[in-house]
Design a protein that fits this description.
367 residues, mainly alpha, Serine Threonine Protein Phosphatase 5, Tetratricopeptide repeat
C-alpha cells in the first residue's frame, strides 16, 4: 500500500498542535499513524521531537529524553538550518531534567541555550523568553536568588502581554517565590496572586492549585492565619477535583496546612494534616515533596514529644533530598534538622547538620 507523504505531514501537524495544547495521548495517536522509515531527516527530527515532548508530558522521562536526543541527531544532519530546532530540544531536555529534580543536568542544557541567546546566535523572542524563564527556575532551586530574579526580569521584558499568558503566569510565580526568599512577603503575595489569576484565566487548574497552595503558604508566613487556612483548603479541594493529576497540589496544600497549624500551636490538627501530606507525597513518588512532607511532620512530632518518630522522619527527609540536586531545599532540610537536634540538646550532631546547611546555602557545595 502506498502511503501519501502529504498525510504524514498532516499527521505531524496534528501531532504538533495536540502536544502544544497539552494533549500528549492524542499527539501520540497521530504519530502512530506515521511510518517513520518513510520520513526524510528533517521530518524525522520533527517526529522525534514531538514524540519526546509527548512522553515528557506523560512523565515518561527516560523515553522522552531519548526521543529528544534522537531528534537532535536528525536535525544535526541539516546544520546550520536547524540550529533553532536543536536549541528548542535542548531547552526541553533541560526542562525534563528539572522536573525530575536533576538541576545539575538541567542547567547544563539550559546554559547552552542561554549562551546562544546572549551571543545573539538566536534572536527568536519566544525562545529567548523561555530560556530566561527556565534559567531563572534553575537558579532559584540552586539558591541563587539574584541570578534568578535577573533572569525573570529579562524574560518579563520579552513577554508580550497580549500573547504570553502562560509564560507570564509562570514568571509571576517564580518572581513571587524569589521575593519570599528575600523575606518580602508583601511582594510575594502580590505576584503569587497575579500568577493564580493568570492560571485561572487560562483554565489551567493544576497550576492554579499549585499557585493557590503557595499563596496560602505566604499568607501563613504573614500570620494571616484565617485567610491562609481558607486559601490552602481551597487549593486542597482544587487538587482533589483533579483526581490523580492533583496529587501534587494535595501534597503541597496539606504540607502547608500542617505548617500553618504547627505555627499556631495546634499540634493535633497539624499532625493530622502532616500525616495526610506524607501519604500523598508517598503516592506521588517525588523526592522533593516527600522530603518536605517528612521534615514538616518531623517538626510536628517533635513538638508533640515524639522524639524517636521525629528524628526517623528527619533522617528519611535527608536521604530523599540528597538523591536530588536541589541545593536550596537541601539547605532548608539540613537547617531544620540541625535546629531540631539543637532543641533536644544533641549539640554535636546539630553542629554537623547546621554546617551542612551553611555550606550548601552560602557556597552551593554538595556535602
Amino acid at each position: 500500500m502506498t502511503i501519501d507523504p502529504d498525510m504524514h505531514e498532516l499527521d505531524l501537524m496534528n501531532a504538533h498542535v495536540t502536544v502544544e495544547t497539552h494533549q500528549p495521548i492524542k499527539s501520540l495517536r497521530f504519530l502512530g499513524r506515521i511510518d517513520q522509515d518513510r520520513l526524510n531527516p528533517g521530518l524525522l527530527g520533527v517526529y522525534f521531537s514531538i514524540k519526546g515532548q509527548a512522553k515528557i508530558l506523560l512523565k515518561e522521562y527516560t523515553a522522552g529524553i531519548t526521543y529528544l536526543r534522537q531528534s537532535i541527531e536528525e536535525y544535526e544532519k541539516d546544520l546550520p538550518n536547524t540550529f533553532l530546532q536543536i536549541a528548542w530540544n535542548r531547552l526541553r531536555l533541560g526542562t525534563a531534567f528539572y522536573e525530575q529534580g536533576n538541576i545539575t543536568q538541567a542547567i547544563e542544557e539550559h546554559k547552552v541555550c542561554l549562551k546562544a541567546v546572549l551571543e545573539k546566535n538566536i534572536e527568536d523572542r519566544r525562545f529567548c523568553l523561555k530560556t530566561f524563564l527556565k534559567m531563572g527556575d534553575n537558579y532559584f532551586l540552586l539558591g541563587r536568588k539574584e541570578n534568578a530574579l535577573e533572569c525573570y526580569r529579562q524574560a518579563l521584558n520579552l513577554a508580550n502581554l497580549a500573547e504570553d499568558h502562560e509564560d507570564l503566569a509562570d514568571l509571576f510565580l517564580g518572581i513571587g517565590l524569589v521575593y519570599r526568599d528575600h523575606a518580602n512577603l508583601a511582594r510575594a503575595k502580590l505576584y503569587l496572586g497575579k500568577s493564580l489569576q493568570k492560571y485561572i484565566e487560562l483554565g489551567d487548574m493544576l497550576q492554579a492549585g499549585k499557585a493557590c497552595s503557595l499563596l496560602g503558604l505566604i499568607l501563613s508566613e504573614r500570620e494571616e492565619f484565617e485567610a491562609a487556612e481558607q486559601v490552602l483548603k481551597k487549593a486542597f479541594n482544587r487538587g482533589e477535583a483533579l483526581e490523580n493529576r492533583g496529587l501534587i497540589v494535595q501534597t503541597s496544600a496539606s504540607t502547608y496546612l500542617a505548617a500553618l497549624y504547627n505555627r499556631q500551636g495546634k499540634w493535633v490538627e497539624a499532625e493530622k494534616w502532616g500525616m495526610l501530606s506524607l501519604e500523598y507525597a508517598t503516592r506521588l513518588e517525588g523526592r522533593l515533596l516527600l522530603s518536605q512532607a517528612q521534615a514538616q511532620l518531623a517538626e510536628i512530632k517533635l513538638n508533640l514529644g515524639k522524639e524517636a518518630e521525629a528524628f526517623e522522619l528527619f533522617n528519611l527527609a535527608v536521604t530523599n533530598i540528597e538523591q536530588t540536586t536541589i541545593l536550596k531545599v537541601s539547605s532548608q532540610i539540613y537547617y531544620r534538622y540541625g535546629t531540631a537536634l539543637k532543641q533536644v540538646g544533641r549539640l554535636q550532631e546539630a553542629f554537623v547538620m547546621l554546617k551542612k546547611a551553611c555550606l550548601v546555602r552560602l557556597y552551593h557545595i554538595e556535602p
